[in-house]
């Protein structure tokens, strides 16, 4: 008997993308979850290098920046903030060094994608290094952001109010997101995002459904979209808990 | 300080008397080699 | 979370909450406005002429006989309850 209601519309096979409707939620709370997903859920990212050999055409710092932006899998709850994991990279040219060449010292941590190019190495060039990945927040550096495309829209309903006049302008009625029709959730892509295709010759009225939000969550692969949502909610809980305790003293 | 002659590609050690010149071929362009130390880099 | 009380009267409370931003403050403000006995609640993340202060300052006004600190504790409890409830509902929908 919860005040909320959650219904999934889409979930990608690899679970990096999810789209779901939440009902009974205030705009403040919805925004809190969204912001927490972007800036407050910590992920592992390379933050320090020990370069043993770099005879490539780029400076160590440039390689470091590229490595930092490689998403690493971060199972929620397994690491403390500031905790580090060591990874190693050793590639001899001629070859391209890819994120997948990173070897992690921890079985739970690995590059989320194996096909991110780091640098192209020519004959006799070599890149050998050790890297420390650290757990930190998106607030500190964008490389620690788990959510890369996170947002929400109001859920909208469409009501047919009458017929269009014979000489009425045939203007497009573009909607993006998800609409609700008699309790059915319909993604607007189904009718080309244009209400004219769904209700030809009809005059329609579009209204927001109060307290209902359609969330779109995409992660960089450091964790699944549902995990990211739950981590964000937990971060709000943790702060409320801390405040409650501090106030009650 | 270890350098490498840009013409004959040989390793060159410089001292304060010889001036900037390769002792093997006399070329005056020397390249400084990267140190073999492990370098620590902070990722910004 | 470091708290610094700026003003504490029976029905009015001004408190600085270090290290927080809109993410939590807006949720908290929303919860406060739903809390019984709270007549006004707001926060400001960059009070004017604050000399560069950017920690949010939360201000709560309450009805007579209602302690503002208690109201704040209740609101925090409400955010906790909402979070737990959201988590359970979300997990059930998976």
UniProtKB/TrEMBL annotation, chain A:
GO terms for cellular component: cytoplasm; DNA-directed RNA polymerase complex. It is found in: Cytoplasm. GO terms for molecular function: DNA binding; DNA-directed RNA polymerase activity. Transmembrane segments: none annotated. Its EC number is 2.7.7.6. Residues 17-246 form the DNA-directed RNA polymerase RpoA/D/Rpb3-type domain. One of its GO terms (biological process) is DNA-templated transcription. Keywords: Cytoplasm, DNA-directed RNA polymerase, Nucleotidyltransferase, Transcription, Transferase. It comes from the Archaea. It catalyses: RNA(n) + a ribonucleoside 5'-triphosphate = RNA(n+1) + diphosphate. HAMAP family: RNApol_arch_Rpo3. Part of the RNA polymerase complex. PANTHER family: DNA-DIRECTED RNA POLYMERASE, DNA-DIRECTED RNA POLYMERASE II SUBUNIT RPB3. NCBIfam families: PRK00783.1. Belongs to the archaeal Rpo3/eukaryotic RPB3 RNA polymerase subunit family. DNA-dependent RNA polymerase (RNAP) catalyzes the transcription of DNA into RNA using the four ribonucleoside triphosphates as substrates. This is DNA-directed RNA polymerase subunit Rpo3. It comes from Halomarina rubra. The gene is rpo3.
Automatic annotation (TrEMBL), chain B:
GO terms for molecular function: DNA-directed RNA polymerase activity; zinc ion binding. Binds 1 zinc ion. GO terms for biological process: DNA-templated transcription. Its cofactor is Zn(2+). It catalyses: RNA(n) + a ribonucleoside 5'-triphosphate = RNA(n+1) + diphosphate. Its EC number is 2.7.7.6. It is found in: Cytoplasm. Zn(2+) binds at residues 8, 22, 25. One of its GO terms (cellular component) is DNA-directed RNA polymerase complex. Keywords: Cytoplasm, DNA-directed RNA polymerase, Metal-binding, Nucleotidyltransferase, Transcription, Transferase, Zinc. It holds the Pfam family Zn_ribbon_RPAB4. It comes from the Archaea. The keyword Cell cycle does not apply. Belongs to the archaeal Rpo12/eukaryotic RPC10 RNA polymerase subunit family. DNA-dependent RNA polymerase (RNAP) catalyzes the transcription of DNA into RNA using the four ribonucleoside triphosphates as substrates. Part of the RNA polymerase complex. HAMAP family: RNApol_arch_Rpo12. This is DNA-directed RNA polymerase subunit Rpo12. It comes from Halomarina salina. The gene is rpo12.
TrEMBL record, chain C:
It catalyses: RNA(n) + a ribonucleoside 5'-triphosphate = RNA(n+1) + diphosphate. CDD domains: RNAP_L (cd06927). GO terms for cellular component: cytoplasm; DNA-directed RNA polymerase complex. GO terms for biological process: DNA-templated transcription. GO terms for molecular function: DNA-directed RNA polymerase activity. Keywords: Cytoplasm, DNA-directed RNA polymerase, Nucleotidyltransferase, Transcription, Transferase. The keyword Zinc does not apply. InterPro entries: RBP11-like, RBP11-like_dimer, RNA_pol_Rpb11_13-16kDa_CS, Rpo11-like. It is found in: Cytoplasm. Its EC number is 2.7.7.6. Part of the RNA polymerase complex. DNA-dependent RNA polymerase (RNAP) catalyzes the transcription of DNA into RNA using the four ribonucleoside triphosphates as substrates. NCBIfam families: PRK01146.1-5. Belongs to the archaeal Rpo11/eukaryotic RPB11/RPC19 RNA polymerase subunit family. This is DNA-directed RNA polymerase subunit Rpo11. The lineage of its organism: Archaea, Methanobacteriati, Methanobacteriota, Stenosarchaea group, Halobacteria.
């Amino acid at each position: 008997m919860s005040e909320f209601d959650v219904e999934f519309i889409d979930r990608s096979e690899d679970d990096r993308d999810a789209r779901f409707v939440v009902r009974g939620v205030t705009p403040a709370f919805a925004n809190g979850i969204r912001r927490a997903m972007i800036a407050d859920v910590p992920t592992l990212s390379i933050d320090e290098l020990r370069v043993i050999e770099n005879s490539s055409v780029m400076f160590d710092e440039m390689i470091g920046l590229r490595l930092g932006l490689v998403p690493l899998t971060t199972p929620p709850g397994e690491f403390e903030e500031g905790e580090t994991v060591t990874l190693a990279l050793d590639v001899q040219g001629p070859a391209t060094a890819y994120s997948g060449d990173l070897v992690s010292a921890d079985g739970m941590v690995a590059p989320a994608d194996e096909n991110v190019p780091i640098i192209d190495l020519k004959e006799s060039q070599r890149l050998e290094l050790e890297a420390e990945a650290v757990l930190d927040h998106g607030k500190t550096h964008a490389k620690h952001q788990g959510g890369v495309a996170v947002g929400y829209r109001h859920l909208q309903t469409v009501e047919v109010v009458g017929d269009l006049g014979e000489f009425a302008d045939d203007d497009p009625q573009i909607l993006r997101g998800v609409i609700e029709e008699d309790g059915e959730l319909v993604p607007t892509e189904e009718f080309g995002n244009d209400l004219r295709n769904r209700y030809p010759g009809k005059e329609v009225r579009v209204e927001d459904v109060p307290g209902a939000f359609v969330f779109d969550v995409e992660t960089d692969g450091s964790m699944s979209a549902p995990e990211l949502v739950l981590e964000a909610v937990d971060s709000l809980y943790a702060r409320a808990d801390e405040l409650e305790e501090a106030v009650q003293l | 300080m270890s350098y490498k002659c840009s013409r004959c590609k040989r390793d060159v050690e410089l001292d304060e008397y010889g001036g900037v010149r390769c002792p093997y071929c006399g070329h005056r362009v020397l390249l400084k080699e990267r140190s073999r130390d492990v370098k620590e880099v902070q990722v910004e | 979370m470091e708290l610094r009380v700026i003003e504490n009267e029976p029905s009015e409370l001004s408190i600085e909450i270090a290290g927080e931003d809109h993410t939590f403050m807006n949720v908290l403000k929303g919860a406060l406005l739903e809390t019984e006995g709270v007549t006004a609640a707001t926060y400001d993340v960059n009070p004017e002429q604050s000399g560069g202060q950017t920690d949010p300052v939360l201000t709560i006004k309450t009805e007579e006989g209602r302690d503002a600190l208690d109201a704040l504790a209740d609101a925090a409890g409400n955010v906790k309850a909402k979070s737990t409830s959201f988590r359970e509902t979300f997990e059930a929908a998976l």
